[in-house]
Write a structure and sequence with these properties.
This protein has 116 residues and is mainly alpha-helical. Among the domains are: 26-61, no CATH class; 78-116. The chain contains four helices and no strands. It is extended.
Amino acid sequence: MENKKKKKPNFGIRPPMAEEDKRKTVTVKLNKKEKEELRQKANEAGLAVSTYIRTKALGQDETAIKKFEMYSNLNRSFGLLKALYRKYESLKTVEDALARVEEELRKVREELKNAN
């Protein structure tokens, strides 16, 4: 009898990635100064640290990576705006919607303040 690995169910979130496309973890040891310098350079490039390392190590174009991340962030932002619109579509004016969003932000800030 074969020992087959059971596949996890895909609940419609996204199709499973091919094995060769999955990212693997690589550990890099840095001292405190090197780590801070790496974070600073990644920040200056507008990239996450892992993206910055991958871009530099593989000789990829930073501009293309930045554009991709920008489009990803815009897509996520529009998704959030769409969710807000659906939640508050009963509001009649933009001012009403903004006031409601500001109230929600105030609540979040208060919760964060109390958590600390």
